[in-house]
Amino acid sequence: MKKLAVFGNPVAHSLSPTIHQMFAKSCGEIISYTKIECAPASFAQSISDFFLDPQAVGCNITMPFKQEAYRLTQAHCDPYAEYAEAVNTLFYNEKLCGYNTDGIGLVSDLIAQVSSLQGSSVLLIGAGGAARGVVVPLLDAGVKELYISNRTGEKAQRLVEQFSRNEVQAILTDELTSKKFDVVVNCTSASLHNQLPDLGRLNLGNCELVYDMVYGSQPTVFMDYASTNGAPRVSDGLGMLVGQAAEAFYVWTGKRPDTAEVQVALRTG
Ligand code: ATR
């Protein structure tokens, strides 16, 4: 039996145990997968306690511990964790290794919905950790122009400077009207507070897909806005959630589970 868990605070809402049990069933693995809510001050200790058990293989890390998990594993983490400066997956393989599978989760879901990102133009709204984590995976998937727009413009500019790649540019809300984007991704935390980021006069009718990283039982205000403003296709972040989990499962087991059937099962309850 492989012992797995998700660490966060709060963590009660997490779908990860359900998702990973479905993966395990379809891949013939036997796992235990628990939710561990720990106080911010005891995160590092909770992680080392968890891995004392020889059956403990790995865990997922969610808010607010992704940056601290990165600091714990900085010497042994994958490039996407390095770029994101955040870790969402830990794997004990003689030593504790950190991974960030969020970007792979987003890319796999976008490709499932728009076929290819090769040569595309993508707009990220938001310049926090969620946006940072997906920049390089999107470029690796062939995105040709990646624009970052943020309520606080300087933060978008700083993020762009950190990546220092010609394909990545900051864009002001006022300038959004002048461009055509194939995919628009809401990476802000606004949907969690039922708020809509300012999109200026962005023409959503021109996009192939408008995507919110947030997933809930109801469409977010951003998704509703996109639907009523001409977006031909609108998606929540369930596919990203399942996709990042699938990549973590692969890190732990070497097996790639089918994500489509898990998404259907989660949507139909
Ligand atoms: P995360 O790690 O989840 O990305 P974060 O680092 O706190 O969280 O970043 C949150 C992002 O959502 C930021 O880009 C933030 O904009 P600011 O940099 O201007 O704070 C954005 N955000 C949050 N609430 C928002 C709102 N109501 N409208 C627009 N942007 C919002």
From TrEMBL:
Residues 114-191 form the Quinate/shikimate 5-dehydrogenase/glutamyl-tRNA reductase domain. Residues 6-90 form the Shikimate dehydrogenase substrate binding N-terminal domain. Shikimate binds at residues 14-16, 62, 88, 102, 215, 244. Its EC number is 1.1.1.25. It holds the Pfam family SDH_C. The keyword NADP applies. InterPro entries: Aminoacid_DH-like_N_sf, NAD(P)-bd_dom_sf, SDH_C, Shikimate_DH, Shikimate_DH-bd_N, Shikimate_DH_fam, Shikm_DH/Glu-tRNA_Rdtase. Pathway: Metabolic intermediate biosynthesis; chorismate biosynthesis; chorismate from D-erythrose 4-phosphate and phosphoenolpyruvate: step 4/7. The active site is at residue 66. Keywords: Amino-acid biosynthesis, Aromatic amino acid biosynthesis, NADP, Oxidoreductase. It comes from the Bacteria. GO terms for molecular function: shikimate 3-dehydrogenase (NADP+) activity. Residues 237-262 form the SDH C-terminal domain. NADP(+) binds at residues 126-130, 150-155, 213, 237. It catalyses: shikimate + NADP(+) = 3-dehydroshikimate + NADPH + H(+). Homodimer. Involved in the biosynthesis of the chorismate, which leads to the biosynthesis of aromatic amino acids. Catalyzes the reversible NADPH linked reduction of 3-dehydroshikimate (DHSA) to yield shikimate (SA). Belongs to the shikimate dehydrogenase family. This is Shikimate dehydrogenase (NADP(+)). The lineage of its organism: Bacteria, Pseudomonadati, Pseudomonadota, Gammaproteobacteria, Alteromonadales.
